[in-house]
C-alpha cells in the first residue's frame, strides 16, 4: 500500500484536509462502516471523478444499531478494506476509535427529520438518530464539499438530505446507483452472513422489485396490486419474514395509493437471521 493515507484522530484528519482545502483542492467524502465491496468502491470512484481528493471513513457506528442487532458481529475487515481503498485511488481513510467519536459522557444527538419516522425508522427505533448523529459528526471532522451515498439505502439518503437542508450544512450530497451482483442481488456487507441456500432465496428481493417495475411498465397504477405482487414473489422465494414491501412517494416516502410520475418500491426482509433491504425507483411510462 503506497498511496492511501490512514488517519486515526479527528484532529489530524481535520487539519490535513483543512490544509488541502486551503491549497484549493476539492474534497469528496465517502462514509462507510467497512467490510467494503464494489458498491462502496463505486462511491470512492465517483468521489475521485467529481473531486480532487477522495476521503473514505470506516467506523462501525454503535448508536445506529439496536440492542438486538448485529453490532458486535458486524464484519470487520480493516486490512482488506485499506487495500481495496488504495486500489480504488482513495487518498485518505479516516479510521477513528469508538472513544474518539463517543467520548465518555457523550450525550448530544440529532433528532432525525420526519422522513425518518416510517419504515426503517419504525422497525429500528433509534437507527436514524444514530445515523444522523454520526454523519453530522463526520461532516464536522472531514471538511468536504461533497459527500457520496448509495441509493441502496434509500431512506438514509432522504434523511441525510433533509438534515443537510434543515441545518444549512455547507455540503452537497451526491447519490450513486446500487451496485448489484451479476444475478441482481444488491451488494451488502451483510450478504456474507447468508448460507448458500439463503443466498439463493435472497434473490427474491430483486425479483419482487423487478416484478413491480414490470407491472408499472405494463400500465398498472394500483399500488395495492403491486404490493400484493411483491409479497407473493417474496413468499415464493421463500422469504423468512417481511418487514415491509411497499411502494411509496419517492420524495416524502409516504404511502401511495396510485403510482405517480415516479415512485419507489422498498423492501426489508429476512432470509434466515439476515435482514436485507433493497429498493427500485419506478417510473410511469
Ligand atoms: P455501509 O458501509 O453499509 O454503511 O455503506 C456505506 C455507503 O455505501 C452508504 O452510502 C451505502 O448506501 C453505500 N452502499 C452500500 N451498498 C451499496 C451498493 N450495493 N451499491 C452502492 N452503494 C452502496
- Give helix and strand order, one letter per element, not per position: EHEHEHEHHHEHEHHHEEE
Distance between the termini: 48 Å
**CATH topology of the largest domain, which one?**
Rossmann fold
- As for the number of domains, it is 2
CATH top level label of the largest domain: Alpha Beta
Shape by Cα distribution: globular
Level-2 CATH architecture of the largest domain = 3-Layer(aba) Sandwich
Strand content: 15-25%
Q: Name the CATH superfamily classification of the largest domain.
A: HUPs
> What Rg, in angstroms, do the CA atoms define?
19 Å
Overall average pLDDT: 98
Question: Structural class of the helices, strands and pairings?
Answer: alpha/beta
Point out poorly predicted stretches: none
- Give the bound compounds: adenosine monophosphate
Name the helicity range: 25-40%
**Largest sheet, spatial ordering of strands:** 1-4-3-2-5-6
Major beta-sheet overview: 6 strands, parallel
Tally of separate helices? 10
**Quick one: how many beta strands?**
9
Amino acid at each position: 500500500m503506497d498511496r492511501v493515507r490512514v488517519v486515526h484522530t479527528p484532529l489530524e484528519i481535520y487539519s490535513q484536509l483543512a490544509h488541502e482545502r486551503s491549497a484549493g483542492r476539492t474534497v469528496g467524502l465517502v462514509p462507510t462502516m467497512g467490510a467494503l465491496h464494489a458498491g462502496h468502491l463505486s462511491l470512492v470512484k465517483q468521489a475521485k471523478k467529481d473531486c480532487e481528493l477522495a476521503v473514505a471513513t470506516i467506523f462501525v457506528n454503535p448508536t445506529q444499531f439496536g440492542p438486538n442487532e448485529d453490532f458486535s458481529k458486524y464484519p470487520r475487515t480493516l486490512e482488506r478494506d485499506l487495500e481495496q481503498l488504495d486500489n480504488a485511488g482513495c487518498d485518505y481513510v479516516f479510521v477513528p476509535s469508538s472513544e474518539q467519536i463517543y467520548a465518555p459522557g457523550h450525550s448530544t444527538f440529532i433528532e432525525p427529520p420526519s422522513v425518518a419516522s416510517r419504515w426503517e425508522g419504525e422497525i429500528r427505533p433509534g437507527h436514524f438518530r444514530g445515523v444522523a448523529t454520526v454523519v453530522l459528526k463526520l461532516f464536522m471532522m472531514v471538511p468536504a464539499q461533497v459527500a457520496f451515498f448509495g441509493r441502496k439505502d434509500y431512506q438514509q439518503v432522504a434523511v441525510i438530505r433533509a438534515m443537510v437542508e434543515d441545518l444549512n450544512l455547507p455540503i452537497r450530497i451526491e447519490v450513486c446507483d446500487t451496485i448489484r451482483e451479476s444475478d441482481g442481488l444488491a451488494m451488502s456487507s451483510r450478504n456474507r452472513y447468508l448460507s448458500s441456500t439463503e443466498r439463493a432465496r435472497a434473490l427474491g428481493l430483486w425479483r419482487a422489485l423487478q416484478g413491480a417495475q414490470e407491472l408499472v411498465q405494463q400500465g398498472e397504477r394500483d399500488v395495492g396490486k403491486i404490493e400484493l405482487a411483491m409479497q407473493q414473489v417474496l413468499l415464493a422465494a421463500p422469504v423468512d419474514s417481511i418487514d415491509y414491501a411497499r411502494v411509496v412517494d419517492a420524495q416524502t416516502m409516504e404511502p401511495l395509493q396510485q403510482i405517480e410520475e415516479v415512485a419507489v418500491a422498498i423492501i426489508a426482509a429476512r432470509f434466515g437471521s439476515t435482514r436485507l433491504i433493497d429498493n427500485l425507483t419506478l417510473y410511469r411510462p
